[in-house]
Specification:
There is one protein chain. By secondary structure, the chain is of the alpha/beta class. The chain is 34% helix and 25% strand. Strands 1, 8, 9, 10, 11, 12, 13, 16, 17 and 19 form a 10-stranded mixed beta sheet that branches. α5 crosses α6. The longest helix has 18 residues. The radius of gyration is 22 Å and the shape is globular.
Length: 463
């Protein structure tokens, strides 16, 4: 059915030390760790506290909108806040939406091209954020990380890097920054959305509390909502379609097994939803989870799609609109002169321009999402199963933030991860995935911030 890939797995590369002593050391080093200063019996002034709670968020899309609303709801932690994007007017519109809901937090805005390291450095040097939350495009992860290193800023994102000219994503590009961030005394937290993100937290929580060893992990992601559009994607169409049309990849007995796109599928039953056809895909958190939990023998990721969506996707691929290479097109000039000019366009980027904006789907979106981890493993010598999940209603998300549930389930964890950092709970120099930290305070905040989780012990995982 597929081909096998052998990835070297060195035990000395396993980042699995999440004991309480290390977490205590992180908290003790909280204040001024980025500059490696130690203050004995130092009284923190209000100005210093503001500086150490200053956050800059890059992005003004659906996920960023949710994260910004949640930051405004937690103004006791996030004292100073700036939103920056390629178009400043989008940031200003977002700030107005937050204030129109009654939140009074002062929020600054700025324009920046996240592809341009020098522009990023100028902004970071001017605003001097303690933490940069990267909710821009995955293509821009490395430029933002470079600027953070240059300006002494800590870093958090929700999706791993992928090159613009190749539909391929993996953590190796960002993990390569580990030594540089460690030497600079800076923290970089990778993949702090839902999947990746909460899926890693769920796994870490299960390993800490319910298993001596995890042997099988299946991450299941169901969107049972209806946006009442013929075809639309729930987040950036360009990123979404690139991800779905890639070949599948899963881990089994030390090997990575590749499948054709959406080749493997089966019906799975989701709480409060029922059975939905679920498709095996490649997803980045599998890469870090099998590294951090070497007892895992099999790890897979499943996502649901409706038949209408798949039919449209098939047409898009067959007519070449999912291509990510440039083509030359002769187009008429906009001045009605009758003259033409040759321009380069990327078909998938053009398609994105004509598809519905994911930010505009929330108002008429009904139904709910259900995302969780189905885990099998050993506790006290006996095999057990564990299913931990969250269901999120699209209309609840829209009423709170103006966005649909897919944006909500990614934006809320991004805010919680930033909160964990600012409180000193998740802070240590280097580049880390979320499961490298203590999951308990994050799990507590999920219940508080709108993504409550539920557990099923020793049930039928269907996998």
């Amino acid at each position: 059915m597929g081909k096998f890939y052998k990835l070297p797995r060195r035990l000395d590369d396993i980042v699995a030390d999440r004991n309480d002593a290390q977490q205590s050391d992180m908290i003790a080093d909280f204040w001024f760790s980025s500059s490696r200063k130690k203050y004995d019996k130092h009284v923190i002034t209000n100005e210093e506290r503001r500086n150490m709670s200053r956050v800059l968020m890059i992005g003004a899309g659906g996920v960023a909108t949710v994260a910004a609303f949640k930051i405004a709801q937690n103004a006791d932690v996030f004292i100073e806040f700036m939103i920056a994007s390629r178009r400043k007017e989008k940031c200003d519109k977002l700030v107005k939406a937050i204030h129109d809901k009654g939140y009074t937090m002062p929020i600054q805005t700025a324009q920046v091209d996240a592809d341009d390291v020098e522009q990023l450095k100028a902004l970071f040097s001017s605003y001097r954020p303690e933490l940069v939350i990267n909710l821009a495009l995955p293509y821009q992860d490395l430029t933002i990380m470079e600027a953070c290193l240059a300006c002494g800023c800590n870093y958090l994102d929700t999706a791993n890097y992928e090159p613009k000219d190749e539909a391929h994503f993996e953590y190796s590009w960002q993990w390569a920054y580990k030594d540089r961030f460690e030497q600079a005394g800076l923290t970089a937290i990778l993949g702090c959305g839902f999947d990746p993100g909460v899926s890693g937290i769920y796994t870490a929580y299960a390993a800490k509390h319910h298993f001596d060893e995890i042997t099988h992990l299946d991450i299941v992601d169901c969107n049972a909502g209806n946006h009442h559009k013929a075809f639309a994607t729930n987040f950036n169409p360009e990123i979404n379609i690139r991800e779905i049309t890639q070949k599948g990849l899963y881990y089994k007995d030390g090997e990575w097994i590749e499948t054709e796109p959406l080749e493997v599928h089966k019906a799975l039953t989701y709480p409060n939803i029922g059975p939905r056809e679920s498709y095996l895909m490649h997803h980045e958190e599998l890469e870090s989870l099998v590294k951090n939990y070497p007892t895992i023998r099999q790890a897979r990721f499943w996502m649901t799609f409706g038949q209408q969506y798949l039919t449209y996707l098939d047409v898009i691929q067959n007519i070449g609109m999912s291509r990510i290479d440039e083509i030359v097109y002769e187009a008429p000039l906009a001045d009605d002169s009758g003259k033409t000019a040759k321009v380069k366009i990327v078909p998938l980027q053009f398609l994105k321009a004509v598809l519905p904006n994911p930010q505009d789907l929330g108002e008429n979106y009904d139904g709910e999402t259900s995302i969780g981890c189905r885990i099998r493993g050993i506790k006290d010598g006996k095999e057990h199963t564990y299913y931990v999940y969250n269901n999120c209603k699209h209309q609840d998300a829209y009423e709170e933030t103006g966005m649909q549930g897919v944006s909500y389930t990614t934006g809320v964890p991004a805010m919680i991860g930033a909160m964990m950092f600012l409180k000193g709970i998740w802070r240590k120099p280097g580049v880390w995935n979320v499961e490298d930290f203590d999951p308990d305070p994050f799990m507590e905040q999920l219940n508080i911030q709108g993504l409550p989780w539920h557990e099923v012990f020793d049930g039928d995982l269907e996998l």
